[in-house]
Amino acid sequence: MFSGRSLNIYIFVTDVKGKSFHMDCKMEKSKIQMLYDAYTFEAVDVGIDEFRLDGSPGSGEVMNSNGLISGQGVSEITYIHIYECDQFSMGIFCLPARRTFPLHDHPGMTVLSKLLYGSVCIKAYDWVRGETCSPRTNGLAGTAIDGIFNAPCEPSVLFPRSGGNIHSFTALTPCAILDVLSPPYSDDLGRPSTYFLDFPIPSLPGYAWLEEREVKLPCDLVVKGAPYLGPPLDVPDDDLC
């Protein structure tokens, strides 16, 4: 969770239509609502064209003739890296229909997510209270989210011990999710990404036993990279980032 120290982020971007987005956010837990309220990006504002497709759907032709990422052309899970510093990272996951990003955690992290377009099924858990605060590899977890989300919808936030910190998502249609992680993943600092299997407990509805996968990275998980084609982010070069 956030300490008493604030993280001041100033982001100013101008999209292709000329309008501006100004976020002056204090990333204390008590001020997370400020960022939540400012999280109004649309796909085109971050360089993604949800509709225009120059080839066939899922053809793998990621960039269209407008010079934007084609949401309909993505054939594999695709990650668009936008920005990262010691305090936070920002990126976008684009998924073709019927692709699943498997169950994984966000140790000691707060994550703000925005579904930019499409429909997605999310299953999320939190460790049962009373479990150790250190990163877990197995244990009892309670269901926090189990449902379908359709864009446009409100952004969501998860915290280190609540809100569905361990989650998976399955694209029901082509979709894109913009994520801000604070702090970002770091193996060296004890924030690795761990993948899990879940085993629902019939006698205990709403709960499941989670176990770390034997293979650190699921063999069926394919994530490709794509360039960020949106407007630049203006982030101060100071001692915070």
From TrEMBL:
Signal peptide stretch: none
Protein name: cysteine dioxygenase
Keywords: Iron, Metal-binding, Oxidoreductase
BP GO annotations: detection of hypoxia
SUPFAM superfamilies recorded: RmlC-like cupins
Co-factor requirement: Fe(2+)
Catalytic activity: L-cysteine + O2 = 3-sulfino-L-alanine + H(+)
Pfam families xrefs: PCO_ADO (PF07847)
InterPro entries: PCO/ADO, RmlC-like_jellyroll, RmlC_Cupin_sf
Entry's EC annotation: 1.13.11.20
GO molecular function, one term: metal ion binding
CDD domains assigned to the protein according to its UniProt record, in alphabetical order: cupin_ADO (cd20289)
Record family assignment: Belongs to the cysteine dioxygenase family.
